[in-house]
Design brief:
Blueprint: H1 3-10, E1 27-29, E2 32-34, E3 51-55, E4 62-66, E5 70-72, E6 86-87, H2 91-95, E7 104-105, E8 117-124, E9 134-139, H3 142-152, E10 157-161, E11 171-180, E12 190-206, E13 216-223, H4 248-255, H5 263-267, H6 271-285, H7 295-301, H8 310-317, H9 322-335, E14 341-344, E15 352-355, E16 368-372, E17 378-384, E18 394-400, E19 409-415, E20 422-429, E21 435-436, E22 439-444, E23 448-451, H10 459-466
Parallel strand pairs: 2-5, 6-21, 8-10
Antiparallel strand pairs: 1-3, 3-4, 7-11, 8-13, 9-12, 10-11, 11-12, 12-13, 14-15, 14-23, 16-17, 17-22, 18-19, 19-20, 20-22
Helix pairs in contact: 6-9, 7-9
Length: 474
């Protein structure tokens, strides 16, 4: 070995394992040398040589001559306690891998024209589907299988509504299947993924073909347009395209002299002002939730944070204007300013479950999502980091990974300790995998509601949110 090679090897750390004891006979052995150098060209280098030890008969001391030795690629077994923790990949949740492989991807998209009456199949699922939200379904029940087959054999579109209202309008969202099982005719169950797109209002309800299911209907609908009112001052500006955000204050002072109303009147209808104020409230209560800067997307995102009831979300889906939708959400948030707790929604129970600030996302879609279990039951669930310390929930069964919505975790059903109703699930990392969080909870949206006046924020926090202004409507 040359001097350069010797110096190079001296800089490397060599771990010699299984070194045998020398006895009064010749012994050949191999040295396993693990490279801990950062050198890329050394990482997969293999050298095969022998090391022999011979005894000198005069002084009985071994004379070891190391010739070639064996270097293996790195393959260390790292104990679980020494592994580096990695954050959970949230994209795995949105992929809904529990539906299985082999789903056929559908191409094309159906866009329904506004201002025209359309006839589509509709299912009432006791949940609200938002535009852009994924709806996973394992079709086992007769009504689900019937409407999905009807939709897939046509344009793959069907309507999803919370429930049919008798004395007021019913709204919903059109879902379009973008992946489905290959065989949907002969199997006992099949899987699909659909995505919400356009919102609609039901004009007339009819019976579904060859079915008496109360959850199905063939309805005449009208598409709800997305309307966003621009800043009223833009109509007064001679060059609205040159109006920059840095000039807003100067322009506002000039514009207010051209109208009979002060600037704060117009400000309460400014979609970006409404979105900014609502965003501040969300960030104050939910520290770990990322929200969009787009006012239209924000107006739908806040409906998936556990603040609004399913009936309220259904009404918000029917609101055409983004401005009005944000206004309603901001007014409602001001009204329940002190709300800080989730509680059990079972009538007569109302036990506190957890702080609303514990809400965090385990999916890129946000903290609240829609999932389907192996029996075909669809759940709307919101994830939280922890429950109240004094809430001793009842666990049912043993931890399971079957049809788990979060790969790498195992779930257990949890019940309310007071009324024994189903609250949701706890999720624990499977087999000491190096994932964070180690433990979290999923609460069924239908099982929880919010507590009003549980904890009143201090005046400084309220002023920080409201910016010293009051929202006035006419």
């Amino acid at each position: 070995m040359s001097d350069s090679e010797v110096s190079e090897h001296e800089e490397r750390s060599l771990i010699i394992v299984n070194m045998p004891d020398f006895e009064d006979f010749e012994h050949e052995f191999s040295l396993n040398i693990i490279n801990t150098s950062d050198s890329e060209d050394f990482e997969h280098e293999e050298i095969s040589q022998n090391a022999s030890s011979n005894y000198d008969t005069d002084d009985n001391e071994p004379e070891m001559q190391i010739n070639p030795f064996l270097i293996y690629p790195r393959s260390l077994h790292i104990p679980p306690e020494l592994r580096l923790e990695t954050h959970y990949d949230r994209s795995l949740t949105a992929a809904h891998q529990y539906l299985g492989d082999g789903l056929r991807e559908a191409t094309g998209r159906t866009v329904y024209e506004e201002g025209v009456i359309h006839t589509i199949p509709i299912i009432f699922l006791k949940l609200n589907l938002l535009p852009g939200q994924i709806l996973p379904i394992i079709a086992r029940s007769s009504d689900i299988k019937l409407i999905l087959k009807y939709a897939i054999l046509r344009n793959r579109s069907f309507g999803v509504s919370y429930k049919l209202n008798r004395n007021k309008p019913t709204y919903g969202t059109i879902a379009e299947v973008f992946e489905h099982s290959v065989d949907i005719e002969t199997t006992e169950s099949f899987q699909i993924k659909a995505m919400g797109h356009q919102r609609y209002k039901i004009l007339q309800i009819g019976t579904f073909p060859e079915s008496y299911e109360q959850t199905l209907a063939l309805a005449k609908i009208k598409i709800i347009p997305d309307i966003t009112l621009v800043n009223p001052y833009n109509k007064l500006c001679l060059n609205p395209n040159k109006r920059h955000s840095s000039h807003d204050d100067k322009c506002r002072k000039k514009d207010m002299w051209q109208t009979q109303w002060p600037s704060w009147v117009y400000k309460q209808y400014d979609v970006y002002e409404l979105a900014s104020r609502l965003s501040k409230k969300v960030k104050m209560l939910y520290k770990d939730v990322q929200i969009s800067d787009d006012p239209n997307l924000l107006s739908f995102q806040v409906t998936k944070l556990g603040i609004f009831s399913q009936e309220q979300v259904s009404e918000l889906l029917g609101t055409e204007s983004t401005n009005i939708r944000l206004q309603f959400e901001l007014l409602y948030w001001n009204k329940i300013q002190s709300m800080q707790k989730f509680m059990c929604a079972r009538s007569g129970c109302g036990i506190p479950v957890c702080n609303m600030s514990n809400v965090f996302p385990m999916s890129p879609e946000g903290p609240q999502g829609t999932y389907c279990n192996s029996w075909g039951k669809i759940h709307d669930m919101i994830t939280v980091t922890e429950l109240d310390e004094d809430l001793n929930v009842i666990t049912v069964g043993t931890p399971s990974t079957e049809c788990c919505w979060f790969p790498g975790y195992q779930w257990t059903i949890i019940l309310c300790p007071n009324c024994h109703s189903h609250l949701g699930w706890n999720y624990l990392v499977e087999d000491n995998l190096p994932l964070t969080p180690k433990l979290f909870y999923g609460l069924s949206v239908s099982a929880i509601t919010s507590i009003k006046d549980y904890l009143v924020p201090d005046r400084e926090r309220l002023e920080e949110i409201n910016d010293g202004e009051t929202l006035v409507t006419f």
